[in-house]
Design goal:
Blueprint (H helix, E strand, L loop, with lengths): L1 H10 L7 H10 L17 H4 L29 E4 L8 H11 L5 E3 L10 H13 L3 E3 L4 H4 L5 H15 L3 E5 L7 H13 L3 E6 L11 H6 L6 H13 L5 E3 L13 H10 L5 E4 L3 H11 L5 E4 L3 H9 L16
C-alpha cells in the first residue's frame, strides 16, 4: 500500500491551485492571509470573569513566591494540549479541564484525524467551548491522509472548507509518513493561508514519525534526517509568515534509545524560540525543556500534563533538578 501511495504521489504534479480551487482562493483574497494563534471567537470580558487562582490571590497563596503567568494571547510560554486521542473527551470532561486550568491552556489539538470520528454537534461543542476560554483549536496531522486521496487538490480544498466551517483555527501540516517535496509543502502553507486559517507545519528528523511507532521500528526505516534540513525548512516557513512550527518528538525525545538534545539545541540556536513549539511526550521531557530553556519555551503536552507543566512554569514545584530552581528576571 505504501509503495502504491508513493507512486501515486510521485506521478502527480506538484501541489498547485487547480481551476476548481481558484474560486475559494478568490473569495478569500480580500481577507488577511494568516490568522493569529488565538481563538477565533474570544469570549467577552474573559479576564474579568476568570476566577483567580489561589496562587494569584493575596487572601489565598499569593504571598508565596511564584512566577506570574502572562495574560492571553501569549506568543511565548505557549501551551497546546492534546485533546481526545489516548482517552475520550466530551464537553463535560473538557469543561472540567478549562474551568480549573483554562488560564494555562492556549491551544487544543485533535491528534491525527480523531475529530472526524465525532458527531458534528459534539465536535462543535468542544470547539465552541475552547473559544469561550480563549483557546485556539488545531487539527492534528490528518492532512497526510487527505493527501493520499485520488484527487488530492480537491480533497485538500474540501478538507479546509470543512475545518473552516466547523470553527478550527489552526491546520497542522505533517508529512511524517510521506515523502513530500519542500516546494509542495510550501504550497500547502499558502493554500491554508488562502482560507484565512493558520498553518502549523510539523517537522522532525525521523521518517515514519507521528504514530507512536516503536523505537526499533523507526530505526528499521533508516537513518534520521540531518537537523540542518529541519532548520532550513523552518526558515522558509517563517519567511512565508508561519507563526509557529511544531517539532515532532519521535526520533528526538520519544521512542529513541537516547535523546537527541543536539537537534533541539541546533533548532533553538538557528530559529527564534517563539516560532517553534516542541512536543513533550512525558513528564521527564517536559521537565528537561523548562530546565534547559526556561519558562518561555512553547510546549505541546497531553491534557493530563497541564497541571504538572503549569506548576513547573510557576516555579512552585518540580523534579530534583528543577525544584526551587526555575525563575525569571522581569
Amino acid at each position: 500500500m505504501v509503495s502504491g501511495v508513493a507512486s501515486r504521489l510521485a506521478s502527480r504534479s506538484a501541489l498547485r491551485p487547480a481551476p476548481s480551487a481558484l474560486r475559494t482562493a478568490a473569495a478569500a483574497a480580500s481577507a488577511p492571509l494568516a490568522r493569529s494563534f488565538t481563538a477565533s471567537t474570544p469570549a467577552a470580558s474573559t479576564a474579568a470573569a476568570r476566577p483567580k487562582a489561589m496562587l494569584e490571590d493575596e487572601n489565598g497563596y499569593g504571598f508565596i513566591r511564584h512566577i506570574p503567568r502572562d495574560p492571553k494571547p501569549r506568543t511565548k510560554s505557549v501551551t497546546e494540549i492534546r485533546g481526545p486521542y489516548y482517552s475520550v473527551m466530551g464537553k463535560r470532561y473538557f469543561e472540567d479541564v478549562l474551568e480549573t486550568m483554562g488560564h494555562y491552556v492556549d491551544g487544543l489539538k485533535f491528534a491525527g484525524g480523531s475529530f472526524s470520528l465525532f458527531p458534528e454537534d459534539k465536535l462543535k461543542e468542544l470547539i465552541d467551548l475552547a473559544h469561550q476560554h480563549d483557546v485556539y483549536v488545531s487539527t492534528g496531522g490528518w492532512i497526510e491522509h487527505v493527501l493520499t486521496q485520488s484527487a488530492p487538490l480537491t480533497a485538500v480544498d474540501r478538507y479546509l472548507e470543512t475545518c473552516k466551517r466547523l470553527g478550527f483555527d489552526v491546520i497542522e501540516l505533517s508529512t511524517g509518513f510521506l515523502s513530500l517535496p519542500p516546494s509542495d509543502w510550501l504550497r500547502l502553507v499558502e493554500r491554508v493561508q488562502s482560507f484565512n486559517l493558520t498553518p502549523k507545519p510539523e517537522i522532525g528528523i525521523q521518517f515514519g514519525a507521528g504514530g507512536d511507532t516503536a523505537a526499533a521500528d523507526l530505526q528499521n526505516m533508516g537513518a534520521q534526517s540531518d537537523p540542518s534540513k529541519v532548520v532550513d525548512l523552518g526558515r522558509r516557513f517563517i519567511d512565508m509568515g508561519v507563526e509557529r512550527i511544531m517539532i515532532e518528538s519521535e526520533g528526538i525525545t520519544e521512542n529513541v534509545a537516547s535523546w537527541r538534545t543536539d537537534v533541539i539545541q541546533k533548532i533553538l540556536r538557528d530559529l527564534p524560540m517563539e516560532k517553534v513549539m516542541f512536543e513533550a511526550a512525558d513528564p521527564a521531557v517536559v521537565n528537561w525543556y523548562v530546565r534547559e530553556f526556561g519558562v518561555d519555551v512553547n510546549l505541546f503536552v497531553d491534557h493530563s500534563q497541564i497541571v504538572q507543566l503549569s506548576g513547573l512554569r510557576a516555579g512552585i514545584w518540580g523534579m530534583a533538578d528543577t525544584f526551587g530552581k526555575i525563575t525569571t528576571f522581569r
